[in-house]
Amino acid sequence: xxxxxxxxxxxxxxxxxxxxxxxxxxxxxxxxxxxxxxxxxxxxxxxxxxxxxxxxxxxxxxxxxxxxxxxxxxxxxxxxxxxxxxxxxxxxxxxxxxxxxxxxxxxxxxxxxxxxxxxxx
Length: 121
Fold this sequence. Notes:
This protein is mostly helical. It has one domain: Helix Hairpins (Orthogonal Bundle). The protein is built from 4 helices and no strands. It has helices spanning 8-28, 30-49, 53-83, 89-117.
């Protein structure tokens, strides 16, 4: 495979593609709306309570973890749905594992939120 030379137009196209993917995720995935509401609530609470810079970094990383897990889960589900419409226990397991990753990330986020916010309330 030949290595291409850096191209600003290629980078811009990649950025547009990624933006389109994020937009599609926000507009079509039910859980994206819930994550958006939770993110707004957490950021508002963090701002109101005046959390520290370090706490902001932890919150940002944790929120990012949940968003990345949810987007990855959406990708896995779409791939599995593309492969077959039939019920298959192997595909169900793959989807369950992917959803489990989101659940785990959300539980980590909840724990971080409790550690940071409860003492300030």
